[in-house]
Design brief:
Two copies of one chain form a homodimer. With 376 residues, chain A is an alpha/beta fold. Chain A has 16 helices and 16 strands. The first copy, chain A, starts with a strand and ends with a helix.
């Protein structure tokens, strides 16, 4: 029987770490990138294709799934894994971030957030207790605490008040998760550090979370428009404020160079819509930098999207064909661009894991940055 | 070395026939259904996925491809097969039908048709000679003569004049194809019978085509709104007007029960956008009749789309999941519905081939009709 949740560090190189998380539904190699499967599908990808990119875990969105198909319905259908055909670990967010960014007529209180669905205007309430219940009904493997993510640029007073509310909600999330019966015996719960760009608030948040105790710790409230330099500024100290023997997860990040810089600073897990969303919009990520396949210069280019990539897209079709598909609005264009981008992201993570294990992460990062910048 | 084009009949059962066409790029089992790959892609399907449904040959549209990416560009890129990654036979239509239905500002003359592109308004000219040249540049395996397809309900005088022009264009197509050099030594050319719903005109058209001589013969001008009864009325005599030792191709057909009725009357080949287009719109074809997966009754239905189908979609996901995907506008919904529909169409063709080979086509057709009608 695999453990409920066991994080093992295999090697460190500077602040960068590589290891694995063993869970009942499978092993997650870290640093890990989690493709986003918002509405019970990683867009334009079958589960077997997602797995073939090298993904060990995907992310599902509580906000989207509670509205459609609905958490209780999902439970009646046997849970998210069975529903979508993905049998490995799934991390679900708490809904806290997206309820503020996507829904309308939100009303926040100490109890939670009431809101109108962006789909049909129906009213719903999310609280720490309801978020835990939904994530349990979905059958999540890694559950995130319900928190509040303040916007970028908020003043210190508001940042502190918001962080402190998030810490009270983290406590309620812990209690609700622990009373979830059988699910609590096989799933894990992660806390989320808040505190905006303030080191002191970040330290207080970390202390509050560690006092409660979690299986892993997310750095939240970043990637909200503060820019890479400010984000790295927080990552210069935030990972050290969190336990070294637990995974650290940077939520909603990011571009390839964000991932390299964050791993360099001690982050173990990531999720982001960028490879999938960009793929649907005709942007590819390659070892030589981003490529906009819609550009006319690709119309008769018989070379692969990325000559340094061995994915099925790069070994099967030319830039000219992808250009034609994307320009023509063909679904296959979105499918192939997404498939390549997810392969690239996983290859980047695999490259970082090997480099850390072999004590050459700095050289890997420097080479990556040089090559990646050359193509911009 | 496989032959350029060799049609072998293995068995007949009433007017129904089964056999195979051997060509340099592969064997086509008949009766055959050709998925439509309009713009160098069978929409929402990778080539290997198309092949896995059982398709031996696909169709490409001359009108769409001449406009984007363009025939000369396609030739510079090595032809349609290499461009899209499909190495088996491709049949291309002549562009004659779609130039009338999709383009604007068309001007018809004895020379051909001049028109404005539906994409950018640019003016183009299609003649029998240019259509043959384009199909050669694409690298087509089965080339269709350039013809005129009159609308449904046209009077006899206009039907006759149009048919006679199509026969003159068939002669010019034959001459242009034969002067196509190396391509003519490995590709085949099909004539197209016209004559609307008039038996005498159909006979005259067939005689004119046989006088010229082709590798196969299409029944054209049907599936333009005349209805199944009128179409079957023509198919009661049209196949007999054409050579028994050459394949007979019913263009643009059709629904599953159209295919069964047409095979029953001696047709060997079909193409239609219905399985792909319907799939994208949420309609599935099953052995128990059509299924509209958007219907609310499927929201918690854990059964497969078609319990009698062994395709990857029916063995992998529930109606509830497909309902969720299609209702949510998720690309994976269109992908999976298309995949199932193409599997169903190929399974139907395979079922008919076996039934004919074993002399039980009438029973197969009767059982199919009973089951298919039960689900409507």
């Amino acid at each position: 029987m695999p453990p409920r949740f066991a994080f093992t560090l295999h090697a460190t190189d500077g602040a960068a770490r590589t290891g694995e998380i063993a869970m009942q539904r499978g092993v997650i190699r870290t640093p890990a990138f989690m493709p986003v499967g918002t509405a019970a599908t990683v867009k334009a990808m079958r589960p077997a294709e997602v797995r073939a990119t090298g993904a060990d875990i995907i992310l599902g969105n509580t906000y989207h799934l509670m509205l459609r198909p609905g958490a209780e319905r999902m439970a009646r259908l046997g849970g998210l894994h069975k529903f979508m055909g993905w049998d490995r670990p799934i991390l679900t967010d708490s809904g806290g971030y997206q309820v503020m960014s996507l829904s309308a007529l939100t009303k926040q209180s100490e109890e939670g957030v009431s809101f109108a669905s962006h789909l049909d205007g129906s009213r719903h309430m999310l609280t720490p207790e309801r978020s835990m219940e939904i994530q349990r009904l979905l059958g999540s493997d890694i559950v995130m605490v319900f928190d509040e993510c303040p916007p970028n640029g908020v003043d210190r007073e508001r940042a502190q008040a918001s962080m402190e509310r998030s810490m009270r909600w983290a406590r309620r999330s812990r209690d609700a998760f622990d009373s979830g019966g059988e699910h609590a015996t096989r799933a894990a719960l992660f806390g989320i550090q808040q505190g905006s760009l303030d080191r002191g608030l970040r330290a207080a948040s970390a202390d509050a979370l560690m006092e409660i105790g979690f299986d892993g710790y997310a750095v939240g409230g970043l990637a909200v428009g503060e820019g890479q330099a400010a984000m790295f500024g927080v990552l210069d100290y935030a990972p050290d404020q969190l336990p070294a023997d637990k995974p650290r997860y940077l939520m909603g990040v990011g571009k390839p160079d964000d991932l390299v810089g964050a791993v360099e600073r001690g982050i173990d897990m990531f999720d982001c819509v960028l490879p999938t969303r960009s793929g649907r919009n005709g942007q590819a990520f390659t070892w030589a930098g981003p490529v906009n396949i819609r550009n006319a210069k690709h119309a008769e280019d018989e070379s692969p999207l990325d000559p340094a990539c061995d994915c099925p897209v790069c070994t099967g079709w030319s830039r000219a064909y992808l250009h034609h598909l994307v320009r023509s609005g063909e679904m296959l264009g979105a499918m192939l661009m997404t498939q390549h981008n997810l392969h690239f992201y996983q290859a980047l993570m695999a490259g970082m894991r090997s480099a850390i294990a072999e004590g050459r992460f700095a050289a890997f990062a420097a080479t990556f940055r040089t090559n990646y910048a050359a193509g911009r």
